[in-house]
Design brief:
- This protein folds into 2 domains: 108 residues, no CATH class; 143 residues, no CATH class.
- 34% of the residues lie in helices and 20% in strands.
- The protein has 10 helices and 9 strands.
- Helix 8 runs antiparallel to helix 9.
- It is globular and about 50 Å long.
Length: 301
């Protein structure tokens, strides 16, 4: 169990000649293999932010080689895959910017076509912890009913300072019960079974800016979702991210999902509905201030 006062690691900028997308030409295509992590691929949708993307990729530290698929959602200039030790990177270029929902849907389909079994999510600017992929794959191998597996998340500022820790429940039953009351599954920390994701309809744009919750709810109708109760991700709190700039759209989509899946016999569904309505009227900065105060590490912890 990781202490909530953990700080984000400082990572060097990557170097070396780029490979992947160059002058509009595709680079080598990923293929699943029989290596320890050969059936796992990291899936990153990216729109600009080349430097942040390189820092995210540099945070991966595994014993086995790591496969990465970057879906470049119409970046200008195009995203270029950096050359990093132990990483094989493919950039899949979208013809135009279509939004994260379309980028993720395209990425899942591409990984399925390449023979991968698991997709490990992370977003540009976030950092992972060593051996995250191996731990998540081992859990999914041992628990075939689980289609999505997250981990605890340390939220940090753009400067890397720890703000608060997200420690959602681990058990599938608790996640189902509290799915609307709190963020039980941190999307950038998830490893997903690609077959299960496609079985329930893949990512979709029906609930804009809440595409992750939409997918998780559909997965939990047929499968389980769980968390490893240990630190797996450093999540960069970006005031220009979706949660800030598209907040009302995200809340509206979440409310629509809450009404669709509402269980009147579950107290947490009522509490989650009230909480989301409060979020709708509360200013974003005020909400962040309250969350930091409630979740910040206490003295002596």
């Amino acid at each position: 169990m990781t202490n909530s006062s953990a700080s984000a690691p400082t990572l060097p900028a990557s170097s070396g000649a780029p490979h992947g997308l160059t002058d509009g030409l595709p680079g080598p295509m990923l293929r699943a293999s029989d290596d320890t992590l050969g059936d796992v691929a990291v899936l990153i949708p990216a729109y600009n932010g080349q430097a942040e993307l390189e820092r995210t990729l540099a945070s991966f530290s595994e014993e086995a080689p790591v496969n990465v698929l970057i879906v470049d959602d119409g970046s200008t200039p195009p995203i270029v895959a950096p050359a990093l030790p132990n990483l094989t990177v493919e950039v899949l270029r979208m013809a135009q910017n279509g939004g994260i929902e379309k980028a993720l849907q395209t990425g899942i389909d591409a990984l399925a076509a390449r023979g991968f079994r698991y997709a490990a999510r992370i977003d540009t600017g976030d950092l992972t912890v060593p051996h995250r992929l191996a731990k998540q794959r081992a859990y999914l191998q041992a628990n075939p009913r689980v289609a999505g597996l997250g981990m605890w998340t340390q939220v940090v500022s753009l400067a890397g300072e720890p703000l608060f820790m997200l420690t959602p429940p681990a058990a599938p039953a608790a996640i189902r019960r509290m799915r609307f009351y709190r963020n039980c599954l941190a999307h950038p920390s998830m490893m997903l079974r690609i077959e299960a994701v496609r079985e329930v309809g893949n990512y979709r744009a029906d609930y804009r800016s809440a595409e992750d919750l939409d997918l998780f709810l559909r997965l939990m109708e047929r499968h389980d979702c769980a968390n490893l109760p240990e630190l797996g991700l450093y999540y960069e709190l970006n005031e220009g991210g979706i949660s800030a700039t598209k907040r009302h759209r995200q809340i509206t989509s979440t409310l629509r999902l809450q009404l669709r899946y509402f269980n009147a016999g579950n107290l947490y569904d009522w509490l989650g509905l009230a909480k989301n309505l409060l979020h709708f009227v509360m200013p974003y900065r005020a909400l962040r201030a309250v969350k930091r105060r409630l979740l910040a590490p206490r003295a002596g912890q």
